[in-house]
Amino acid sequence: MPETATHVGSGKVRELYELDNDRLLLVASDRISTFDVVLPTEIPDKGRVLTGLSAFWFARTREIVPNHLVALRADGRSTECRRLEMLPLECVVRGYLTGSGWKDYQATGTVCGHRLAEGLRDSDKLHEPIFTPSTKALEGHDENIDRERAAELVGQERFDEVERVSLELYGFASAYAAERGILLADTKFEFGLDEAGRLVLGDEAFTPDSSRFWPADEYEPGRPQPSFDKQFVRDYCETLGWDKTPPGPELPDDVVAGTRARYVEAFERLTGNDFDAYLADPEVVLG
Ligand code: Q0Z
Q1: Whose CA is nearest to atom 5 of ligand 1?
Q2: How far does residue 220's CA lie from ligand 1's centre (Å)?
Q3: What are the two backbone dihedrals, phi and then psi, of residue 245, each rounded to the nearest 5 degrees?
């Protein structure tokens, strides 16, 4: 009998289904968002690129921390995963100062309670990566919080554990990516607990939707960096004079093709696999 899956959640570009009591199915669509708005035009295979990258990193970081991956489906965009009790914390690591971190630094000289050196510029590399947790705001953007507030939310011991593990994951992946010409400026993890209370990495890992990917050969601090994956989309949107409120614009074919090529390039550089080989057999990324 074919299995049934109950839809239990929607993200901006992903869907979540319940398979049974212990397992969920995470499905990555080809939708793309820019300036926080989901566009009406899809990027073919974007969901497969993100699912393949996530699985690649889950397979290579399991000695740092166990993760929720149970199986990668043949469609290349669906992940069967263990159902966890998710922690109410977005675990962000920043190796470079940009986005909300740069904003907070300009206003206060600090990011999530870390006092940083004076005189830093947008996109500067930090002397050391920092753990900058946030919480899901009820609407809109995540809210950066300091370590005291984060420790109140999950307990001091668990806080210490997610900080240590997050920094270790970031250190591993950012070094690996930098050797392949991609800077992981920052990244966000979501952790949960299994039935025994063990910490498990959930959600997605080191995808361009959960991290900032920058082309290393264009890195130049003192300005915002081009996005490895979404820059064609942003540049096109800027030519339109669009006010960045919904609905977003349709994308022309050349912007779609260029953007798809960038996602595939990120996949191939990081995993060392041909994307066509992934489409033929997604498990190639598991090594
Ligand atoms: C992930 C999300 C998405 C909407 C819940 N292994 C897990 N166990 C329990 N819960 C989750 C996971 Cl990954 C879980 N999200 C984020 C993903 C659509 C929301 F695809 N929410």
Answers
A1: 86
A2: 35
A3: -110, 155
Q: What's the gap in Å between 115 CA and the centre of ligand 1?
A: 33
For the whole prediction, is pTM greater than 0.70?
Answer: yes
Residues 26/38, Cβ–Cβ less than 8 Å: no
Q: Where are the alpha helices (DSSP H) in 141-287?
A: 147-154, 156-178, 231-240, 253-271, 275-280
Distances from the Cα of 169 to the Cαs of 67, 184, 191, 205, 268, in angstroms? Answer: 12, 12, 12, 9, 21
> Which phi and psi angles does 161 have, rounded to 5°?
-70, -45
- Tell me the CA distances in angstroms from 4 to 15, 18, 30, 72, 77, one per residue in order: 15, 9, 23, 17, 18
Are 182 and 226 spatial neighbours (Cβ–Cβ below 8 Å)?
no
Q: How confident is the model at residue 138 (pLDDT cuts 50, 70, 90)?
A: confident
Distance CA 267, CA 56 (A): 10
Tokens of 72: 């990668």
In terms of residues, how long is the chain? 287
Nearest CA to ligand 1 atom 2: 11
What would the pLDDT profile of 196-239 be if each residue is shown by its tens digit?
999 999 999 999 999 999 999 999 999 999 999 999 999 999 99
**pLDDT tens-place string over residues 217-229:** 999 999 999 999 9
Place of tokens 């920043």: 94
- Pairing of β 6-10 and β 14-18: antiparallel
Q: Please give the Cα distance from 16 to 187 (Å, whole number).
A: 21
